[in-house]
Amino acid sequence: MGYLKQIDVENFKSWRGKQVIGPFMRFNCIIGTNGSGKSNVMDALSFALGERAAALRVKHLRDLVHGAHIGKPVSTTASVALRYCDEEDREVVFCRKVTGDSSAYHINGAHVVHSKYVEELAKIGIVTKAQNCLVFQGEVESIALKDPKERTKMLETISQSKELAAEYQKKKEDLMKA
Ligand code: ATP
Ligand code: MG
Prior knowledge:
By secondary structure, this protein is α+β, with helices and mostly antiparallel strands.
């Protein structure tokens, strides 16, 4: 299984200029005092996966630029690039750049339309349409308290098992007949 190796940020939220978050390992823990930017790491990740502004704790995408929270944005653009390492140690870079309130998506430096970006993310097992792919601050409890059927539905969407249910059923029936 592949893993996220590094996040390159530029003028995104608490990072001024070009900065590197990582390198990461397969399991990581981020620690820091209140307000030090731990949740901003999650925001950077979600932003690069295509999340809308509200989910990134801002009103407009332009508010993501470093300094915008105090009315002094350092630039008109901000970007986040996810350096993903696949099973064969090949790197794939998923990058989203915001200019004003518009977004542009790149894979390995080449511009792609949003649908293609989402499609390529799905190939490495990241289903952006499945909310709760990332569990944010305060959400653990709400997931634990979900109705069991709702929670199962959520896990089926994340794991994409719902789409394989018919094929699974057919294979099971074929085995029974054999
Ligand atoms: P807690 O432990 O309280 O959850 P945290 O480590 O998760 O804190 P974050 O919410 O990630 O902290 O970061 C908050 C910090 O990010 C604040 O200090 C805020 O000033 C800074 N910040 C947010 N948006 C911007 C921005 N656009 N430009 C610069 N700094 C920003
Ligand atoms: Mg936080």
